[in-house]
Amino acid sequence: MTESEPEPLPRVLCDLAALAADADASASGALWRLAESGRQLDANLVRLPPDQRVAAHAEPDLDVLLLVVAGGGTLYGGTEGAARQLTGGTLLWLPHGSTRELAAGPDGLAYLTVHRRRPGMRIRPTPPG
């Protein structure tokens, strides 16, 4: 930081519990995203309606923290597909390369994900040949 740059200040961004509680029960997808410039992290508040799923997938490059904010559901993960019940306040670490699938329960599922920000896309010259 140079003398001409202002000091970055901590600040409250939102009330996740209130956002999750105010969401329409059928709302699906991101209710909030971290969008501050110059950030090193990405974060999203995601809502799954009752009995909806996020299909099995693996994140090859990024570790992800997942915090259940409201509702509940089930995490299926690993090669054995072990099921773990999720309730409000559950904090999960999803290491990069791990396979995971989420299923919302009858009240839906709202969760916060936090991970390192992906680098922006770069245009690279086509290699010869």
Sketch the topology as an H/E string, one letter per element. HEEEEEEE
Q: Return the average pLDDT rounded to an integer.
A: 87
CATH architecture verdict: Sandwich
User: Please, what is the CATH homologous superfamily?
Assistant: Jelly Rolls
Q: Uncertain regions: pLDDT < 50 for 5+ in a row?
A: none
> Number of DSSP helices?
1
Q: How much of the polypeptide forms β-strand, as a percent range?
A: over 45%
Q: Fraction of residues in helices?
A: under 10%
Structural class: mainly beta
Which CATH C-level class is it? Mainly Beta
Number of domains: 1
Rg over CA atoms: 18 Å
Report the biggest beta sheet as strand number plus sense, adding barrel if it closes.
7 strands, antiparallel
Shape: globular
The CATH topology turns out to be Jelly Rolls
How many beta-strand runs? 7
Distance between the termini: 43 Å
Question: Which secondary structure elements does this structure contain, and how are they paired or packed?
Answer:
Elements: H1 16-22, E1 29-33, E2 41-48, E3 53-58, E4 64-77, E5 82-87, E6 91-94, E7 99-116
Describe the structure.
- The chain is mostly beta strands.
- The chain has a single domain, classed as Jelly Rolls (Sandwich).
- Helix content is 5%, strand content 47%.
- The chain contains one helix and seven strands, in the order H-E-E-E-E-E-E-E.
- A hairpin with a 4-residue loop joins strand 4 (64-77) and strand 5.
- The radius of gyration is 18 Å and the shape is globular.
- It starts with 15 loop residues before the first helix and ends in a 13-residue tail after the last strand.
- It comes from Peterkaempfera bronchialis.
- This is AraC-type arabinose-binding/dimerisation domain-containing protein.
